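Shape matters. Shown next:

___
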Amino acid sequence: MKITVISVLLWKLETILLLKSLKLDEWWIWGVDGLVIGAVESTALIPAVEYAKEHNVPVITANVDIYSPDVLLYIGFLGFESGKILAEEIVKYLRDEVEPIGEVKGTVLEIRGTMGSATGEDRHNGFVSVLDEYPEVRAITVVGDWDMAQAKTAAETVLRAYEVDTIYGDNGPMAMGAVGAIEALGKNPQDYFVATIDALPEVLEAIGEGKIDVALDQPCPFYTPLAVYYLVEFLEKGEEALPKPGDIVTAEDVNIEGKIHQGVDIWAHDEMWAPAPVVETEYGHPWMQTRGILVTKDNYTLESLWANFELEEW
């Protein structure tokens, strides 16, 4: 099948106007038969998905979902599970490195994302679901609103008032804000166990310097290729070709012959996204939950980490 890719930035209510201007019912002129959308906002694009369905244009979402039953498949990271995984890393540190050794005791500072955001709620709830099992762990939570400067200010306030053992940032910029707060107070980041979600370039640099201990990175380079793969499968074979709730998708299930791109063969590291269980979202469509990869000083130079890609002006 010949595939034509049209890349556009879709934003809020402008999206529906854009799709109407492109005349979805005439897209056959361009040879375009489906949409892969990485949304910025999950609810504003619902009318766009509905409009696409009215014109028999299938939609698969990647990275960020759209809350519509008309989405064929969502491919993305599981924020709740990522919070749990990093909480478990913090529990190990408290048990093995903080007195009394062998017991899980200590103080944890969590810098969470914007209150009420779906991503922030998932990452926070997964994190506290683990810590709630350890009554001797004191958790202090502040809101960083995904922002480095705000996280730095919030972290400084806590670090002045409390002896903190570990820090968890709901995203990379907030973790970097916490590192900045530690340094601003004349303290050494290596005296804290710092964990975060998302290995941004600056986070990888901080891991190399020993200022951040672990990051759980999303398999961002795989989202869109997987979405395009399943869109083609759907167009050629129908809905039976799509993964269904209850399935577990492995690398062997996806027949993608990757090529070197930007000097990197990402498909040499399928373990970064698979195995991926499939569940049904509360919005009524399947979600293929890609896994992440724990990044530490042992593997922070791995070429397939998206932040290590040699991109211009990166």
About this structure: The chain has a mean pLDDT of 88.
